[in-house]
Amino acid sequence: MSRSDVTLVSAFIAPYGALLVAFVLHPIGYALWMGSTPSLYADLLADPFYLRSLFNTLLFVGIGVNVKMFLALLLSGFFMRRRRWIKALLVVFVVPWTLPAVQVCIAFRWMLAGEEALIDRALTVLFGVDGPIWFNHWSLALGANIVAYVWKWMPFWTVIFLAGRMAIPRDVLDAASVDGADGSRRFLHLTFPLLANLYLVCTLLSTMWTVGEFTTVYFVSGGAPVWTTDVLATLAFRYAFDAANPALAVAAAMSVLPLLVPIAIALMRALQTKAVQL
């Protein structure tokens, strides 16, 4: 390669390298440096809001991911049926995932906020009962966050599992039907074992994404009542902007690494196992 070619390649790569350093490597390195002070983690453990937010994060991730994945797997079997109205219903079902997350979460909040909200009015009209003040109770507010999260993201994973089911050879399913296996037995002994690795990979990947979920909690419950439904992502935001303590915010975000690293390792091993099988 001539000197002019090297110069041309360098001139082409240099702007992208500068952007990578300025907007990726430098912010990450600076954040790691800010969160490297051990005293910050002592301050976190002394803060009752941090411990509650950590507990909320574990509940939000554990319940939200598992419920979402289980329902998505079941619904993927429903949408496998070859009927036109089911195909049309699939299009409607996917709509929440296609909408921007902020608008979806704000709309979900306004369905619950206030006595004139949609859910409370429906309870009054249909059952003659007054709905609760959803965001005045920790369990109801956290439950609203989880339901909104599942409703928003379940269609995406349903489509993934639907594609996985469609990849199963039809001859295998027909042979199981000839052998007398009904729908539930085909699912337990044939479909689920064939989708087990896909289910595991999707669950691990979804868990990693959900640990840092900010939008749902911030725009649905907003941490109500009184920061008690915050997760680590929203608590870090409050530390950085409300309390003007960005170092503590970085420490709060980095404190989740002991959970993410084992999940990432398990995900890589699951992918390697799948590659070896192929």
Tally of structural domains: 2
Segments where pLDDT lies below 50 for 5+ residues? none
Distance between the termini: 39 Å
Under the CATH scheme, which architecture of the largest domain would be assigned?
A: Orthogonal Bundle
Number of helices: 13
Q: Tell me the strand percentage band.
A: under 5%
Provide structural commentary:
- There is one protein chain.
- This protein has helices spanning 3-34, 38-46, 48-78, 84-98, 101-110, 118-127, 138-166, 170-178, 183-211, 215-220, 232-242, 246-254, 257-277.
- The protein has two domains: 1-34; 39-277, MetI-like (MetI-like fold, Orthogonal Bundle), CATH 1.10.3720.10.
- It has 278 residues and is mainly α.
- The longest helix has 32 residues, at 3-34.
- It starts with a helix and ends with a helix.
- Helix 7 crosses helix 9 (183-211).
- It is built from 13 helices and no strands.
Quickly list its features.
2 domains; 278 residues; MetI-like fold; 79% helix; mainly alpha
Produce a short descriptive summary:
The protein has 278 residues and is mainly alpha-helical.
SSE layout:
Blueprint: H1 3-34, H2 38-46, H3 48-78, H4 84-98, H5 101-110, H6 118-127, H7 138-166, H8 170-178, H9 183-211, H10 215-220, H11 232-242, H12 246-254, H13 257-277
Helix pairs in contact: 2-12, 3-7, 3-9, 4-7, 5-7, 7-9, 9-13, 11-12
